[in-house]
Design goal:
The structure is a homodimer.
Chain A (H helix, E strand, L loop, with lengths): L3 H7 L5 H9 L2 H11 L5 H8 L3 H13 L3 E6 L7 E6 L1 H5 L1 H14 L8 E5 L6 E7 L10 E6 L4
Chain lengths: 155, 155
């Protein structure tokens, strides 16, 4: 994996944030994920949509595959040689929460002068959605009350 | 999400995810934020907790200050020269959602063999919290129903 020299320092072994960042904590990986959530699967799709260099894309796709976020599956189009496609795993789909949180923050704090083109919505109800902290009874918590460092009892 | 007419570089101008990533889309920035949310404010705090090189830390703190996430304020301890402290702005505090989403994903998909030491909880109710998509009536949406690319009507 990339930045192996950073890993011991950047990611505390007992910190889930650090371990998540090992897989998706860089710009290209997050942008690749964004495109994957919009349906991109082919190397050429990612390369063209992101204008990313092939060697960088190859490296980042490898990290995402190794990290269990993307699944590599061969496909073949008529008249072409077999190629590999990259499909989101359940772990990859669950990163929708991370991407949604980034989108929401960007909408609010890095707004485009003309406003956002797209946002978070439900395919079922059609309602707008936001990313929030909720408790086990589905009640939303105020962000001021949230602590990411609450000790967890040993199992 | 994707801006079909300006698909250049990492951050599409109309894409809030891309613009958020410009500020916080790298490993060190996310780790600096994690420490800031846990109370770190001094350069030396960040450097020692993260084992990050001073030049890298200086550069990343600068991006976070320029991006409106951290606010630079001078402080002075007895017998020392004045130094700059780095404090979360409201925009920085709101990134709790992003960090919480990363933590939750790491807990689930990159678990430590001994389980997590800390998690997401409410300082008020003491209840465990999770990061989820909710609608304007506070109803939680299933992740399968979430679309981050719903067109937003022009204002």
């Amino acid at each position: 994996m990339q930045n192996r020299s950073h890993r011991s320092a950047a990611a505390d072994t007992r910190c889930s944030i650090g371990r998540a960042i090992e897989v998706v904590g860089d710009r290209w990986s997050l942008l690749i994920l964004r495109e994957a959530l919009q349906g991109a699967t082919r190397f050429s799709d990612f390369r063209e949509r992101l204008h990313v260099a092939s060697d960088v894309l190859t490296q980042r796709l490898g990290v995402l595959v190794d990290g269990g976020v993307l699944d590599k599956r061969p496909y073949r189009e008529a008249g072409s040689r077999p190629r590999m496609g990259y499909h989101l795993t359940p772990a990859g789909r669950d990163l929708t929460v991370v991407l949604g949180a980034l989108q929401q923050w960007g909408d609010h704090y890095r707004p485009h002068p003309d406003g956002p083109l797209v946002g978070r919505g439900s395919r079922v109800s059609g309602r707008q959605l936001r990313v929030a902290f909720v408790d086990d009874e589905g009640r939303e918590a105020s962000l001021d009350d949230v602590d990411l460092g609450v000790p967890v009892a040993a199992p």
